[in-house]
Amino acid sequence: MSTPDEEKPKSDRRRGDFLGISAIAAGLLSGLASEKLSQSLESGGWIKVAGWSLTIGFFLIWAIYNAPVVLRKYRTWRAGAVATSTPADLQAAAEEAEQWLVALGSEAAGLAAAEWFDLNEPRLRDVLASEKPTSASADDLARICDALDAWYVRQGRAEDLLEVSVYLLGLAEGCGRQDLEELATAREATAYRLLEELDTAIAKIGISANVAPSRRGHSRTAAALETRRQVELALVHLARADSAPVGSEQEEAVAHARSRLDDARLSRPGPDLAADVAISINLAIVQLYQEDAEGALDHLKPAAARAAAAGDRSAQAHAFELIGAAAWMLKRPDEAVKWWGRAEHHYSEIDEQEGQARCLQHLGSAAVVAGDRTGGLKLLKQSAVLRTYESPVLVQYLAVATQTGPASVEPEVSRRGSIGWLRRKIEQWRLR
């Protein structure tokens, strides 16, 4: 005796056979009607009108009757085109991306991870484009989005970051996953900040916070997301400070950034070495904006030590770079050059070209200020090759380095050589 599960496919097959026979019968009927009506059409007058009407009527009946069949065939074809891999293939791709994400920026495998992402990023995007999001595949697709998110942030590819964040948001809404919706909206905020659409970034942070307020504080993931939102708000305020004129407006933006970072410290999900490093580095950036170099060093030296303990070569390089900026502000150029040299070396080891370009710019600027225009020009040109966007400070120092007459560096240029690039600095940690 057949079970209900066995009867269902049989019933589906019988229904398909019936619809197929109906389609053939309707086709034959339409052909017969056309043949008979063609004889009526020759007689003209009302018979001609009736003939056309009947022909059109038969055609509409046939089209409506068979529309479900055509639609189902189309959906079947589309599903076949979308499902290009098995669940096992998708899981393997997600696990591979996640493993390289962990290695990205690390001391042991940072360079290999950067090379892997550079080679495989198009393939990961193809997986997202070809896979049909379902509740079963949501977590694996989200892991691929996690990997691409970190890569695009590191590369400063705001448009790509926004595309992947929008994809994750659509996946989350389609599968009813509020946790992913909350995360995707927070990532959209990062993308809009990088695109310098600061009001939109703040709006996205607010939306992310209101996706599931009942979850807040009830899990490590929810707490980590709240920490991320507070850090993102701080970075938005720092971006505003960077574009604001020196004075009360800039001071207010920096004060807001400091307040948000203090909130981030309180909301972090228990002991989290990576989060502590990220918050400390951003607090140091606030101190540098306030021209409190000694206060910045109080955050940076412990952050560098914790990053080294965690094997996070990227965070360590960021800390070294900022220690150099603090030394420069304290009018200790030799010490600044030493730290920038160490940071540049660390960045090059993990193929973090944007950071390497910044350090080459710092070193070249310092050489120009010291009077070594030839050496400075060489370093500045190397920085320009690695840059993914045009730096106004770099352009100004290149102009000074190529002067044929006596070189002069305006104080404002020298000051911005220390801190004007800070707004693009982003620290990442894994949300557990």
What are its keywords?
single chain, 432 residues, mainly alpha, Serine Threonine Protein Phosphatase 5, Tetratricopeptide repeat, disordered N terminus
Helix residue percentage = over 70%
Number of helices: 18
Q: Which regions are unreliable across 5 or more consecutive residues at pLDDT < 50?
A: 1-44, 74-84, 410-432
CATH first level of one domain: which class?
Answer: Mainly Alpha
Taking Cα atoms only, what radius of gyration do you get, to the nearest Å? Answer: 31 Å
Largest sheet: none
Mean pLDDT: 78
User: Per CATH, what is the topology of one domain?
Assistant: Serine Threonine Protein Phosphatase 5, Tetratricopeptide repeat
Total beta strands? 0
CATH architecture tag of one domain: Alpha Horseshoe
Q: Structural class, please?
A: mainly alpha
Query: What overall geometry do the principal axes of the alpha carbons give?
Result: globular
- Helices and strands, in order, run as HHHHHHHHHHHHHHHHHH
The fraction of residues in strands falls at: under 5%
- End-to-end span in angstroms? 51 Å
Keywords: Membrane, Transmembrane, Transmembrane helix
Protein name: Tetratricopeptide (TPR) repeat protein
Organism: Kribbella italica
